[in-house]
Amino acid sequence: MTKTALVCGAGGFIGNHLVSALKAEGLHVRGVDLKRPEFGDTQADEFMVGDLRDQNFVAEAVEARFDEIYQLAADMGGAGFVFTGDNDADIMHNSMSININVLDACKRSGSKRIFYSSSACIYPEENQMDPENPNCEESSAYPANPDSDYGWEKLISERLYQAFARNYGMECRIARYHNIFGPLGTWHGGREKAPAALCRKVAEAEDGDTIEIWGDGKQTRTFLFVDECVEGTLKLMRSDVAEPVNIGSDELISINALADLIAQIAGKTVQLQNIPGPVGVRGRSSDNRLIADRLGWSPNAKLADGLQQTYAWIARQVADTQHG
């Protein structure tokens, strides 16, 4: 009998890639989201467009028992959306409403195995002040002190999934994603993340132009290519690992160096101008010891290889926009 999967957030960047991976494995996939994927069509067998904050819509979407449910839907974006403070109420209300609705519907339908995409933003701000040595070991999450309400919502929702697992016999799997990037993601409009924003700026620049970088550019991050994110997600989902684990790269790079690497890939020379802007913590890197120990897996793709694919895709989008 064909296995079934439900992907909430299937119109989003990671969700769209996840649907394609599940279809490649032969599962019957239902996608659910506010909108269909922005770039290219979905491979889902069926796609329901609706608001996951609406209990009735969620009950309809989860009316059957699914073998696997992936909950990636959230109100989110990059630093320009998350760290200004202007969107905190929406971020917390919308994302928490979605998680409560999905868990309630799963409980009613008898769907047991649920994946939840949490975030590296749950880690305490004080553990990420040194850009060269940030501490994002899973056990460091408490005492809790995320640097944004987006991080607080993700942490509270982790607790929600763990409580449903304890009280209702669900098998919840929780990944703390670290800066996932790749083709088919948002690359303009204010919600894009650093790799996509910098790829766009470099693609739009002429040789010798100046591009702007928020902050001093010495803040560090790790970035994980979407194919490896999906691979890690599927391995975690089908494991017996009940505690939250990081899914991310440990290849640490500063934002200025990231911009230089993208320019090198593009074959352009650009000048960097550091300007005030929302930046988040000083350093963040995925600690991959736990996932390597529990799953025997960790990502190994080089950042530059993923950026080559991402830059090529975004450069095509920019060219199409300029010529359209």
What do these coordinates show?
The chain has 324 residues and is of the alpha/beta class. It has two domains: 199 residues, NAD(P)-binding Rossmann-like Domain (Rossmann fold, 3-Layer(aba) Sandwich), CATH 3.40.50; 99 residues, Alpha-Beta Complex (UDP-galactose 4-epimerase, domain 1), CATH 3.90.25. It has ten helices and 13 strands. The strands form four sheets. Strands 3-2-1-4-5-6-11 form a seven-stranded parallel beta sheet, with helices on both faces. Strands 7-10 form a two-stranded parallel sheet. Strand 5, helix 5 and strand 6 form a beta-alpha-beta unit. Helix 1 crosses helix 7 and helix 6 packs across helix 10. The protein is globular and about 60 Å long. The mean pLDDT is 95.
Can you give keywords for this protein?
2 domains; seven-stranded parallel beta sheet; globular; Rossmann fold; alpha/beta; two-stranded parallel ribbon; 13 strands; 324 residues; 10 helices; UDP-galactose 4-epimerase, domain 1
